[in-house]
Specification:
Helix content: 55-70%
Order of helices and strands: HHHHHHEHEEEH
Number of helices: 8
Number of domains: 2
Distance between the termini: 54 Å
CATH superfamily of the largest domain: N-terminal domain of the delta subunit of the F1F0-ATP synthase
CATH class of the largest domain: Mainly Alpha
CATH topology of the largest domain: Peroxidase, domain 1
CATH architecture of the largest domain: Orthogonal Bundle
Number of strands: 4
Strand order of the largest sheet: 2-1-3-4
């Protein structure tokens, strides 16, 4: 099985270039344009096809991406040559994480039993930010199985304030009190 490319290495390289050239935002835009271009399944298939010559793929890519920087276009061309253009979304996501960290922003993945409105999301972001001493951007999803409360993952920390986990802890505690030692 061929070795899969590491999107983090590409993202790190792009990030270092962007820092050096002071083009963090431009790279964000260019990466998102590239991700958008390959989201078209037919276009992606053409870029990955061994039947189409590289110069034709390069021309198609340049036409589709339009005004991206020459360095961003070269990254896309490199990924085509290495048959790895499909990882551009992962590269863009990792790059975004690096840029957020540079600006002191952390992503929080939050799970709730019911959808939360913008006001509650803002309050939760403030509370989580106070816990980790950072600005927080929340990505939320709903999972009715947690019954209530919130589960938040910020960086490497998991904060489980769900009703389900509290009930499970209570169950373990009650089961443990009946034992004789």
């Amino acid at each position: 099985m061929p070795k899969r490319a590491n999107p983090r290495r590409y993202a790190r390289a792009v990030y270092e270039i962007a820092l050096e050239t002071k083009t963090l935002e431009r790279w964000q835009t260019d990466l998102q344009k590239t991700v958008g271009a390959i989201s078209d399944a037919d276009f992606l298939a053409a870029l990955e096809s061994p039947k189409i010559r590289f110069d034709k793929k390069s021309q198609l890519l340049a036409e589709r991406l339009g005004s991206v920087s020459p360095v961003a276009l070269n990254l896309a061309r490199l990924l085509i040559v290495k048959n790895e253009i499909g990882i551009i979304g992962e590269i863009a996501a990792e790059y975004q994480r690096l840029v957020d960290a540079y600006h002191g922003i952390q992503q929080a993945k939050v799970v709730t039993a019911v959808p939360i409105d913008a006001k509650d999301k803002e309050k939760l972001a403030e509370d989580l930010g106070a816990l980790v001493d950072s600005k927080i951007v929340i990505e939320s999803r709903v999972d009715p199985e947690i019954l209530g409360g919130v589960i938040a993952r910020v960086g490497g920390k998991l904060l489980d304030g769900s009703t389900r986990s509290k009930l499970m802890a209570l169950k373990r505690a009650l089961a443990g009190t009946g034992r004789k030692t």
